[in-house]
Each structure stands twice: as structure tokens, then as C-alpha cells.
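Notebook entry, structure prediction.
Reason for the run: the old model in the group folder had no record of what sequence produced it. Starting over properly, with the input documented here first.
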Amino acid sequence: MATRPHGYGLTSEVNRKINQKYCLELEQQARQWMEAVLQKPLIEGEDPNTPLGEEKFQRALKDGVLLCELINTLQPGSIKKVNRIQSGSFKQFKDMENIDNFLTAITKYGVSTADRFGTANLTDRNNGMAIVLNCIHAVGRAAQKNGYHGPTLGPRESQYNPRSFDEETLHAGQTLIGLQYGYTKGASQKGMSFGKTRSIND
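New structure, fully documented this time:
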């Protein structure tokens, strides 16, 4: 695989900031949730109470198989065929196909396009795994919104909840004088004391 340039100026600065956002605590939350949903470890033999770290986490997800299994568990039938090629000249293309299928499926599942990652973010780790991690948390939020009753990840997403008021309620507020107009509801400073008075002697 060709070596990617590190980039200069704005490109380098953006990549550096993205890489700094990778958080082991968020990784551990995502990992434990995925393992609970899939009912198997992401990497056999690894301590479940110790974060994998960016490199191992990327290696576990790089072929896209676990991601496809994840969305198929949350919503059965989302991905019809998962490529499980272990080696060969076509492995890289099949891995990328798995990831593309996962990204398409989670979009249909309700994950915002802004929360998705690019295939290269996972296969090459060129922009760090922080974007991938953010996407997994977004899938966890979408699962709660879609009524998944298994393990949860993160807070429930707010839902669109429009309010409608009748004309009487809307006009009721126009009869009040807000305090921002200087109306004090009759309050004054009468009887208030601000410390000891100063006496003036002749």
C-alpha cells in the first residue's frame, strides 16, 4: 500500500486535532457495548476491563465483519451477505465492501450522515479512529431510538416533538408586561439599607 503524505498547513493541523480526540474511555464503552450485543469478544484473549487502544481496536474492525454483524443483530437482515475472506488478493476489496454495506445500513437505520466515517478512516487509519468511534456511539443512540431492547450505549437521542397551541394561549402572553421593559411589579427600594450611613459633622 502506498505511503500517505503527512500533509502540511491546514491538512496537518486538522489531522492532528482529529487524532487528539481519540478517547480510551469512549473506546471502552463502545467495545463493551459491541461485545454485549454480539455476545462475543472483539479480540479473543484480551482483558475485557482494559481498553484495546487505537491500533488493536482498528485491527478488530478493519475487515468490517464485526460491524456487519452488529447492524444485523440490531436490525436483522440489514446486510444480506457478509464477506469473510481470510486472505487473498481480493481480501482488501471485500473488506471495503463490508464497510460500505455497514455504512449504507446504518444510514437506513437512522444514523446521521454527519456521524458516519469514510471507509479509509477505518482501513488506513489515515484520520485516526476517533471518527469511527463517534460513529459507533451514534449507532448505539440510534438503537435506543429504534426500540432495541438489548444493551445500551450512551444517552437516548432526543426526538422531534412539535408543540401546537391554540390562539387563546398564544395571545395570553401579550397581556403581560415583561420585566425587561422596566416594569418591577410595584417593587421599590423603600426601606432598603445599603450598609452604615455616613454622618456629616459640622
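Summary: The chain has a mean pLDDT of 82.
The old model has been moved to the deprecated folder.
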